[in-house]
């Protein structure tokens, strides 16, 4: 039998064995997040019949059906799990985020689920519907003048409160398991399996943090799939220029007007190397495409979904010109109900100088049945 002296010689005197006091809370929180995933992780894949694009079926991954109404529900869950797993979020942590709206809505939902205080730092221009949703979930909104001010202000508030800054723009690409584990890419390919063109020729999407495009692009390469990834970028965003130049130091003086996508700086989660093509989309084209897609679906979608759809139409038109067939997949990022007082308000569009007339004619001409 080992005596006490032998034990002291074997184990250093300063060895401390302890169990975190919040271990049970961590187990509880992880269980709550997993239950939410089981209830809501998958979303519908809607086939869109476009008469003018025969042979090129279009599919829409409808992320608006998540409990918090947008693609950001997946990201918010992953960010909370990431923070909890790293030991940054505990049972009394004040959680802070920099957001243009949708991510903060989803994060407020998860903060309430876990009983945590939540503060969203966002531009004053954020839609009133998103602000109302955040407060309805128990979150607090802290407004700044411009989009580029959200980062430092969120970090400051987190530090002052002794809380944790989720930092979606840095952590989006690392918080999601791009190899699988029911991420959005795996879900798309599983749902496409029985379709006439099960491996999409293209997946088209916009970038806010860049995390979802990073996940999809990495998954395509990891699975050795014959799919190309196109990222569409709105006006006043630097992602397109950074992808072209490979210069991550680019910045813009004006923020994107298409809420939820486009950034005035190249976010850490934006991974240019996984992207096969990018398209710069005018704001008026995004809004015109949003209106056209809403008409085809008989329900309203948000402006970033319009940006996505315009990119799909560009890719489809080029495929058609080359005599190619195959499927294209894109995302419905959120519902248009959040934008009734902005993008669906003719007076607001006119005040912003957004004239969709010319783009509407071009889009209608492409999607209409051949005469």
Question: Can you describe this structure?
Answer:
The protein has 371 residues and is α/β, with parallel strands linked by helices. Helices cover 43% and strands 13% of the residues. The protein has 14 helices and ten strands. The strands form two sheets. The protein has a six-stranded mixed β-sheet with strand order 1-2-10-7-8-9, sandwiched between helices. Strands 5-4-3-6 form a four-stranded parallel β-sheet, with helices on both faces. Strand 3 (95-98), helix 4 and strand 4 form a beta-alpha-beta unit. The termini are far apart.
Oligomer: single chain
What is the CATH third-level topology name of the largest domain? Rossmann fold
Describe the sheet with the most strands.
Answer: 6 strands, mixed
Radius of gyration: 23 Å
Give the CA-based shape: globular
CATH class of the largest domain: Alpha Beta
Binned, the helix content reads 40-55%
Query: Going across the major beta sheet, what is the strand order?
Result: 1-2-10-7-8-9
